[in-house]
Design goal:
By secondary structure, this protein is of the alpha/beta class. 33% of the residues lie in helices and 15% in strands. The strands form two sheets. Strands 2-1-3-4-5-6 form a six-stranded parallel sheet, sandwiched between helices. The protein has a six-stranded parallel sheet with strand order 9-8-7-10-11-12. Helix 2 crosses helix 11. It is globular, with a radius of gyration of 21 Å.
Length: 356
């Protein structure tokens, strides 16, 4: 296939509902534009800030606008998309499989909601399962591409605002929002102590759904040793840090791909590539140990990354675009997607759209 010809003059919609989705889809946008395609953005719901759009990015404000523009392909980093959005619907994921379980005790990453035509998977340890599910359901295809979000991670970033000439090691603390899983309520006193102790330069970044109570408490700790950061692009933070303290947030997996150690607190799947701690009093010692980069831990990280995301060439966005174009051109006949009547009605209500 001539991939330049496949993209030229075609229309690609970026459908997002969270601020972190900008960074996920922008590498795909760059590949589309470099190959002669058109891009528009649709911001669903009230949790995504339009101010993060750049002056060169064009937004479609209503579903009517989307349907009139009629995209050939829609890229989605979220879990769901309405069936009335035009074009082939391509899932590119909002994170890695961090092992989070849904209410049924199953890994949420593999929850098939009946919304997508194509899943672009990140590496062997998710591709195998998704291909089994594709065979089982019959209404979607799977192609392993790597995760486009990470393309900038594997390139040298100039003017990184979080890189400092501070000689202290840099600790990045990230947390998910779930009360059950989040380290924020459980390690507050320890992190407060770290900020007062001044042994490390600390950067903090929380999931955008973190309760305001904890965001405000941690912001109040800000001093010359601790900086609380709110951003739509976590990649520069990952590049700037030496070690991470996390819980069961999927952001830790991106940090591992830089071959850097992660200390986790009560992780749901504490495998050998992590230094998992269940006692708050042991966190400081674990961070100190991680900073030494012990050889057995680093080998476990390397082996795990080969299964998680073996691509370090910064070309995953081009592979996603190629896979989507190939799927579009193949015109392959799949089984009809499930009707999902209740879910579709809820999405119509959320978007206040009742047309065809």
């Amino acid at each position: 296939m001539n991939y330049l010809t496949a993209t030229k003059n075609k229309k690609y919609l970026m459908y997002i509902s969270q601020n972190y989705s900008y960074a996920i889809l922008r590498p795909i946008q760059a590949a589309v534009l470099a190959n002669g395609g058109e891009v528009r953005w649709f911001l669903a719901g009230n949790e995504v800030n339009p101010d993060f759009l750049t002056t060169n990015e064009q937004r479609l404000h209503t579903i009517k606008d989307v349907k009139s523009w009629a995209p050939n392909i829609t890229f989605i980093p979220g879990n769901i998309i309405p069936n009335f959005i035009p074009g082939k619907k391509v899932a590119v994921f909002h994170g890695f499989n961090s092992g989070k379980l849904n209410r049924k005790g199953q890994e949420d990453h593999f929850n098939i909601r009946g919304c997508y035509d194509l899943y672009c998977t990140q590496g062997p340890n998710t591709t195998t399962r998704f291909k089994e599910l594709a065979k089982q359901h019959g209404f979607f295809k799977v192609t392993e591409t790597g995760w486009p979000t990470l393309d900038p991670l594997f390139s040298n970033t100039s003017n990184n605002p979080y890189v400092s000439d501070d000689p202290r090691p840099t600790l990045l603390i990230c947390s998910t929002f779930s009360r059950k899983l989040s380290l924020a309520p459980k390690l507050y006193e320890q992190i407060k102590h770290f900020s007062e102790q001044g042994k490390w330069r600390i950067l903090m970044q929380f999931h955008p759904k973190m309760p305001a109570e904890w965001v405000n408490k941690y912001k109040a700790l800000s001093n010359e040793s601790l900086t609380f950061i709110e951003t739509d692009n976590v990649l520069p933070l990952l590049q700037a840090a030496d070690v991470m303290l996390c819980d069961t947030s999927s952001v830790l997996l991106m940090f591992l791909l830089l071959r850097k150690p992660v200390v986790t607190f009560c992780n749901q799947k504490p495998l050998p590539h992590l230094l998992d701690i269940t006692d708050a009093d042991e966190v400081e010692a674990a961070i100190e140990h991680a900073l030494t980069k012990p050889s057995d831990l680093m080998q476990n990280i390397k082996s795990y990354c080969q299964e998680l995301h073996p691509y370090t060439d910064g070309q995953s966005s081009q592979r996603v675009l190629n896979a989507a174009n190939e799927f579009l051109q193949s015109n392959e006949k799949l089984k009809p997607k499930p009707l999902n009547i209740i879910r579709q009605l809820k999405m119509r209500k959320d978007l206040n759209y009742w047309g065809w």
